[in-house]
Amino acid sequence: MPKITVYSNRWCPYCRRAKMLLEHKGVSFDEIDVEAVTGARQEMIRLSGRTSVPQIFINTLHVGGCDDLYALEQQGKLDPLLAG
């Protein structure tokens, strides 16, 4: 199984939507709340080059945000990434 990391916050609807898709896929993921964890937002920006949440990583691959995750799903490219 790949290591999945989701940078998010509690109130973001796009974060909830992205996590719902990952949960539907039956994969576990680490969630880092950028408002609760000191330095997490800066780390996310450094790794992704983006300031908005969610930002999703599969292993070391930055797949982007919620819309990017759903685009991968629609293109049939998400399952191979999740399979490792």
Automatic annotation (TrEMBL):
Domain Glutaredoxin, residue spans: 4-63
PROSITE patterns (alphabetical): GLUTAREDOXIN_1, GLUTAREDOXIN_2
InterPro entries xrefs: GLR_AS (IPR011767), Glutaredoxin (IPR002109), Glutaredoxin_subgr (IPR014025), GRX_bact (IPR011900), Thioredoxin-like_sf (IPR036249)
Listed SUPFAM superfamilies: Thioredoxin-like (SSF52833)
Keyword Secreted set for record: no
A Pfam family hit: Glutaredoxin
Entry keyword set: Cytoplasm, Disulfide bond, Electron transport, Redox-active center, Transport
Role played: Has a glutathione-disulfide oxidoreductase activity in the presence of NADPH and glutathione reductase. Reduces low molecular weight disulfides and proteins.
Family, as annotated: Belongs to the glutaredoxin family.
Protein name per the record: Glutaredoxin
